[in-house]
TrEMBL record:
The lineage of its organism: Bacteria, Bacillati, Bacillota, Clostridia, Eubacteriales. GO terms for molecular function: acyltransferase activity, transferring groups other than amino-acyl groups. It comes from Caproicibacterium amylolyticum. CDD domains: NAT_SF (cd04301). Keywords: Transferase. This is GNAT family N-acetyltransferase. Residues 29-182 form the N-acetyltransferase domain. InterPro entries: Acyl_CoA_acyltransferase (IPR016181), GNAT_dom (IPR000182).
Length: 184
């Protein structure tokens, strides 16, 4: 999928929303490491992000060529500071209507409307790609993300106890959420 939109943030900063390309592989991997270190809300520790840049580049190239693959990054002053996407299982008929959403924004850019802009763009592309529902899980203490998802019509359909078990031994539950597209 290809996507590009210029937006202005709440503080007036210019920001570009666009699909990342193979040339962004290194920047995307760095972004993933930064955001994985900044909160307990991401699925991985930064030292678990070990994808070789060439492999990431090949993956991004495949995504760009596939109209049903949805990934949108945010760039400020030429630097990728956010990324979000939906992963699907398009080759299994019984799963074709579903997608799993994920998003990460570097902390210093929170609260400027980037999450809202990316989610709006992603859900629009998901509809175009024929998806009927978008799913996610979110750590129960992640109030900012929970608010964002509720704003776009995601509803809680369950709670997964001990969804994340951290290296220091504490655990977090996660809300399981779904958004039925076109039925908000
Ligand atoms: C969650 C995340 C995507 C939000 O992005 P963002 O750019 O800050 O989002 P926005 O600025 O568009 O909107 C944030 C909303 O949360 C609200 N908010 C902020 N702090 C909040 C809090 N503690 N409780 C409830 N709502 C809160 C804001 O008021 C705003 O709501 P509004 O649009 O109705 O005014 C971003 O914080 C992030 O990437 N976090 C780290 C990674 C992460 O948690 N990913 C999600 C994993 S499921």
């Amino acid at each position: 999928m290809r996507y590009r939109k210029d937006i202005e943030l709440k503080n007036g900063t210019k920001c570009v929303l666009r699909n990342p390309t193979a040339e962004d592989a290194q920047a995307i991997l760095e972004h993933m490491k930064i955001t994985s270190d900044e909160t307990e809300f991401m699925a991985r520790y930064s030292d678990e992000i070990i994808t070789p840049p060439a492999e990431e580049a090949a993956y991004l190239k495949t995504l760009e060529a596939d109209p049903r693959s949805i990934m949108i990054a945010a760039q400020i002053d030429g630097k990728i500071i956010a990324n979000a996407g939906i992963t699907c299982r398009p080759y299994h008929d019984r799963y074709r209507h579903r997608g799993e959403f994920g998003i990460s924004i570097q902390k210093r850019y929170w609260g400027q409307g980037i999450g809202t802009a990316i989610l709006k763009a992603i859900l629009g592309e998901a509809k175009k790609a024929g998806l009927e529902q978008v799913e996610l899980d979110v750590v129960d203490s992640n109030e900012r993300a929970f608010h964002l998802y509720r704003k776009f019509g995601f509803q809680v359909y369950g709670v997964l106890p001990r969804a994340f078990l951290y290296r220091d031994g504490h655990a977090s539950d996660a809300y399981l959420m779904v958004c039925r597209l076109g039925q908000k």
